[in-house]
Amino acid sequence: MLFLLLPLMAIIPVSAGVSGGVEASSATLGLVPNEPVRGGSVEFRLLLENTNSVTASDVQYRFYKDSISSSTKFLESTVNIAASSSEEVYATWFALEEGERKVWVEFEYSGDTTASFYKSFSVSGLANLEIIDSSISPTTGNRVGDTISVAVNIQNTGTVDAAESVLYLGVESQPSLDQYLSIEALAVGQTTWVNNSLVAPVGGEYEVILLPDVNGSINEISESGKEVKVPLSIDPEPDYLHASDPVVETPSDSIRGDWEISGTILRKHFSGDSNVSVGFSFPDHTGSPIVIQPIIVSMTGTSDEVSTDWSTNLNWSQIQNLGDGQHLLRVQIDPFEVLDQATTNNDAASIIIEIRPTPNVVLDQFANPSSTKVEAGEPVTWRVSISNAGDIPVSGLLRIEWEGMSSDQVIGQIDAGGSFLWSGVLATSSSGAHTANFTATWIADGNSFDANLADSVATGSVEATTTLHLQFAVSTEAIVSSTGGPASPPLNPGTYTYSIELTSSGLGESTLICEDVTQGIVKKLSTTEVNIATRGEKVSVECTFDTKDRSTILLHIRSEEDGTISKTHQKAFAVDLAQGINEEVSESTFGSMMLFGFAAFVMIGVLITAVILTRNREQDVERDIFDYCPACDGELEGDEDKCPHCDFNLKRARKRFHDCTTCGESMPSLLENCPYCGAVHDLRSQFKEREQKKQTVALPDTDAKEVVEDEDAIVTGAENFDETAKEFGFEEGGLESEWDEELEAAEAQMEEVIERQAAELTLLEEAEGADDETAGPVVAIPNIITPEEAMSDHDIDAFLSDKKGRRHMVDAGDDGGDLDASDASIRGEIFKLTGEDGVLPGQEVLVGMGIQDHRLAGNELPEEAMDFSFEDDELEPAVEKRKKAIRRKKKEAEDAEDVTEASEVGECGACGADLPIDADECATCGAKFS
In this structure, what DSSP letter does residue 789 have? Predict the structure, then answer.
């Protein structure tokens, strides 16, 4: 069987192609729809297959109509196809022509030969209905209502037979005249006539519209451009109509009318005079018909269009049976149909007329008082809300009934839908505790309305009480001694009477109690019965107490009943136990003076003793008084503004006060004992506790290597003057003599500089005195220049001997400031170099009667010095310590012999005088050495 099919397969044409491993054929080319028609379009779908093992990029493909040429190409593009995969591409052929057609496809990839193939398909034909002729009869002289004949000739101009269809016949802007007429089936080229008639509309110019296959049931070659329009002229007839909707005006402040109705009537296609009647009715009224007597509107004019305004009033008697609300009013032209008109469809118009309901004034039934409970006799502010629920304004007054009295409050007008809040202050009766009732009633004016009187009343009530309240008047407090004389804290031991007044509000009775509550022990001192019958009455309370041996007295005044006194009263008095009083015995003036004199003498003795006992030796005391931070307990010098241990603000703490928890008096927060009652307070309870800052203390490094001292460096100061003096050689051979040698050399150099400058000044003066006219060329002699300029060509090494043995006068270990005690050995030489005559730091100075100035470093206050004391307790004794000089090593072996000689004679570190090396006191200045 297979062999029999081979010849048959051989004669079946298969169009295919391959380019660069991309394959396609007519078998992979499809079209949608499968049966395209004339004038339509077809979409081709081509499947391109990539047989390569890599992606085929930019595969070019093209589609052609019937043949391959540039003019028939309708699509050209590229596509990427994955390896061993397929990709579908699309192309559309529009505006097909009937008959057999071919679509050609070309594609190429990677520069290979272009492959091409084609596929054939058929395009079928379509029917096409067209109006080839039409007529209207008659074309002129038509009037509204006439019958007009219409004839239409239709032909099938397509290539396929047309089935039955529908013809549309209508008049522009007259949808009521639309007609749909049947068209029989038509073969190719066949024609048919469709005849019918229509009724002429009102006068005017129109167009008759004709359209075959209006429903689109036949698939035609072309669906556009088939509509045919034929002009139609209708002669006009007289017509009366409303130019616009009538208007009704309702009075803004009345519910009984009148209502004014107005409008405009338009007459068309008539010349001359005419009378038109206008009628009014309410067609939606459910009861008996309500018809209003028509009015007559006279119209005149010669133009084709004439308009005339009209108006009339409707009163309450005509429409009162309608009831409240909105009602439809019909306005009808020519209600009896006596006029000759082209049409009556535009004779009627409708408007809404509103009959407002009777307005109702509503009061909020609950009157609002400022307080529901007040003291009898106190005022109350009442508020009443009034609303107008109607559509017109209302006016009236409020009738107020309160505490057996009646009064009218004029409100005036309240607009439609508006509201009003009445507010009034009314006093309650002071007759005693009772309930005060309030009533407010709206009373409408004679020309106003109120539809419902039941909701025009507001009521309320308040409770009038007579609660007694007492308040202390601090300004009235007073204290007197047992003799009747005024007293003030601190009190002397004895008996006193404290009094204070209270101001009352309200009425009632109460018992006031005065107690002694010192140190928590309650002792009742007195009771006062109070009976207030008149508001504002004042009450006085007296408390008699004995100080005994107590340093503080705390009084407490309260009421026996809760709430009578809003805040109890406490009063504390400090007692000076050091003072004794005897109110019954009067001491003489001489005794008092003797007592005060003796007390002053004792105080002076105590002061002198305190100064002597508090004196400390300067070398043993670093400070006299220690203070402690209240936040971290760190030690203080006493004059800091900020704690160095925790940064607590001490300056602000000194200004802080708090109330004593025992007596309630204000006291400084840094005091441990209350100055009024002596109660002990924990300072740290008044301040937030803080932690002291961590301090890092460097420990000695036992493993560190010994630091090699710089023999050329000169130390300007030391902590211990004794050790520094030893380093200068007071006990170990004296100071090194090389200092004197080098300083003498430096002094000689400076003297040469000074002499040279003096010579230059002399030459300069002579040059300035010469005559400018006779003098020849003058050599310029510079003015005195700075040492840097004068010695710019000299190196210091050139005029200082023995470079290896010189010492630099610099503060190697200090900040380079003024010389101090450690440099006392060189001050004399510096004076010689600079010509100064003064005192350097560290030098002992004798002032006045030979007292040594112990404030200078290196001096001590001799024992035989004058003893004196200071009244200013801010001065602190200075701690004087002699400083040690750094030991200097001998650098040159050849200087050993000179050092040995220098060790036999030393130099005073205070004044520079020579003295034996083993001396312990300077004979010149009195400085002592250990």
Answer: H
Two tokens at 67? Answer: 């043949």
CA pair distance 105, 117, nearest whole angstrom = 5
Pair type for strands 257-268 and 85-93: unpaired
- Angstrom CA distances, 107 to 23, 47, 92, 121, 670, stand at 9, 12, 17, 21, 104
* Alpha carbon distance 89, 76 (integer Å): 11
Spatial distance between the Cα atoms of 593 and 634, rounded to a whole number of angstroms: 47
CA distance 183 to 163: 9
φ/ψ of residue 602, rounded to 5 = -65, -40
Name the maximum alpha-carbon separation found in the chain. 169
Residue in this structure with the two tokens 């084709």, named with its chain if needed: 304
Beta-carbon contacts of residue 605 (< 8 Å; ≥ 6 apart): none
- Assess contact for 218 and 186: CB atoms under 8 A: no
CA 190 to chain centre: 87
Q: How far is it, in rounded angstroms, from Cα 505 to Cα 377?
A: 11
Question: How far apart are alpha carbons 398 and 439 in whole angstroms?
Answer: 10
> Is the separation of the CB atoms in 210 and 189 below 8 Å?
no
Enumerate residues 6+ apart whose C-beta is below 8 A from 412. 395
Phi, psi of 819 (to 5 degrees): -70, 145
Per-residue pLDDT of 755-806, as tens digits, reads 877 777 777 666 555 444 434 433 333 444 455 555 555 555 554 545 555 5
Name residue 88's beta-bridge partners.
47
Query: DSSP letter string over 194-212?
Result: EEEEEE--SSEEEEEEEEE
Q: Of 524, 395, 501, 379, which is closest to residue 448 (Cα–Cα)?
A: 395
Cα distances from 79 to residues 56, 261, 301, in angstroms, run 8, 80, 82
The single-letter DSSP state of residue 641 is: S
Cβ–Cβ under 8 Å, residues 606 and 614:
no
CB–CB of 458/363 below 8 Å? yes
Q: What is the DSSP string of 301-362?
A: -SSSEEEEEEEEEEEHHHHGGG-SEEEEEEEEESTT--S--S-STTSEEEEEEEEPPPP-EE
Tell me the one-letter amino acid at 117.
Answer: F
Q: Would you tell me how many other CB atoms lie within 10 Å of the CB of residue 557?
A: 22
DSSP state for residue 699 in the 8-state scheme: P
Cβ(268)–Cβ(239) under 8 Å? yes
* First-to-final CA distance of the chain: 144
Q: Cα–chain-centroid distance for residue 698?
A: 51
Least confidently predicted of 550-559, 691-700, 913-922: 691-700
CA 494/CA 481 separation, integer angstroms: 8
Residue 502 neighbours by CB under 8 Å, 6+ apart? 470, 471, 472, 473, 512, 538, 539, 540, 541, 565
pLDDT in tens, 227-259: 999 999 888 778 899 999 999 988 777 777 788
| Phi, psi dihedrals of residue 836, rounded to the nearest 5° | -80, 160
Distance CA 57, CA 85 (A): 12
- Cβ contact 128:221 at 8 Å: yes
pLDDT of residue 645: 85
- Within 2-81, residue ranges assigned H as helices are 2-11
Radius of gyration of the chain (CA): 66
Residue 13, C-beta contacts closer than 8 angstroms, at least 6 positions apart = none
CB 436 within 8 A of CB 359: no
